[in-house]
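writing this on my phone so excuse typos. first protein, seq and then structure
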Amino acid sequence: MTHLSVVGARTTPDLTGKVALITGAGNGIGCATAHRLAAEGARLILVDIDRSAVETVAAAIGPRACGQVADVTDYSALEAAVRAGVERFGGIDIVVANAGVATYGSFRHLDPQAFRRGMDINVTGVYFTVRAALPSIIERRGYLLLVSSMAAFLPGPGMGPYAPSKAAVDHLATSLRAELRRRGVAVGCAYMTWIDTPLIRDVQADLPGFADYLKQLGPPLDRIVPVDVCADAFVRGIARRQRQIFVPWWIVVAAWGKHLLASRLGDRFFGPEVDDFIDRSDAAVAEHHRATSARNLRNANMPALDRSGL
């Protein structure tokens, strides 16, 4: 039976001394989860493309954390980060494959480079993270947590590669579970609604129509969940080696109803507000000359878009 992570539940087994590898650990969900795991006594290998951010998080946690700089799409860099962490702490018990990015605008105008980069980080980066840590995870009969999203079964407009990539992560978790369960490795997948992270704040800042779109969606889809709530749910799920973690709990209902969204009945979910949001998003992309946040462009050393292509 699948156990759900419900806010307010008690954390069970002890995580003291366990070693966790977290990607995207420099901010947002990765950072908050790192602090919560540290409070539970875990030791941490923190990976992020942003050196300043990941070193700041590691310093705040102290000697039980080491910060490593790597782009998750660079397998050699990830291997080196994992090797450094294993040399320091002796192995890896937990992986949180969390690094991810979002893009803006319609498929009609989305820059191909931005689409490819989004898929590379959100899918290939998750696989590379798992692959680099897998020898130690198998040896220790550990736990993998792949971070997907409610977008895996509730794809919305203007998400570009985000929703397809998160659906791919969902299936990757299922495939890994089938392969690894006989080796004593547990595989979990996390599905979240809007979480108050730099990713969401970037969207809010760059897309003026996003706030109106959330209002039109109505409750509970219009609510942004505090990042600490998400981190608490992750840590409970990690401690219990859960198959699925839903943040908040009602996401499980959306998961059950995902096939309706692909039906003609589901077409009614996307009303006139979708066209308005897409038009405003495309206008924002053209104005900013980018289809993702400025922070993502800086981290990836990517140029701004050529406006003539929009």
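second protein below, same order as before
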Amino acid sequence: MPRTRNRRPVVGVVLLLWIVLELWLLIRVADLIGGLVTALLLLAGAVVGGRLVRRAGVRAWRALAAAGTPGARPPENVTGDAVVGMAGGLLLILPGYLSDVLGLLCLLPPVRGWARRRVLRWAERQAVASGIYGAAARGGAHPTVVVEGEVVRDEPAPGRAGESDGPGPRRPIEGPPGN
């Protein structure tokens, strides 16, 4: 089993740097355009982000419903687009200009396609590592179990019509005509 390193310290440092950069940008932009305009821009970003998250969620739900049968997977581009759209919306909801720019980038088709491919690759690696897809995800075939034997069915015992004294004689079920 491959060794995984602990990424918590790295994620913590990156998150802290992100927050510091966002605050610094907010203060600099508020000095340039004013506090009221800055607040209105942040509010507008949150409203647009909320709508994007909702729209992406509805699209993902419809794709799952359209897939039909339980366990069927929706088309990958719809799933990936929904994930990237939700991420873009969530970045817009977060207060800050850096997150807003990244959220808007998630809406551009070239960036969305690149991000969708990355998300799908990551999800596939996670599914294979956890064993969700089993042998099929690792390139193998689904295991098929064949049990040799006869198929039999119960028939009513001979007697009066409609009455049964229990299971009747068992006999093999015949195949389709011509076999």
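Residues 156 and 164 are 5 Å apart (CA to CA). thats all i got for now
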